[in-house]
Amino acid sequence: MIEIYHNPRCGKSRNCLAFLDQSNEDYKIIPYLTETPSFEDLKILLQKLSLQPIQLVRIKEKVWIENYKEKTLSDDEIIQAMVDNPILIERPIVIKDGKAIIGRDLYLVASFLD
Fold this sequence. Notes:
Layout: E1 2-5, H1 11-22, E2 27-30, H2 39-49, H3 62-67, H4 75-84, E3 93-96, E4 99-102, H5 106-113
Parallel strand pairs: 1-2
Antiparallel strand pairs: 1-3, 3-4
């Protein structure tokens, strides 16, 4: 089953969800702002995405700028920052068959789902 890390306040995330609705595939919404992924969940997600932790961070978020931007952080500290502040997690994230992508580009989502 497809999973989507979704933020209903994010336009890109809403667009991706609408795209999934049209795809006629079953999916599960993960409301990651209210059901915060654990440290281990994020490590696994990063492996599925083939990304370094900093690549999953929304570095323009106010929380990042005010609390982390000027610091030198280890990968584990970056992951913990996302656990503590899930708004920092890039979205939407689409997961299928043990792989994942950041679904901001619907063309890439379509290719990913094929």
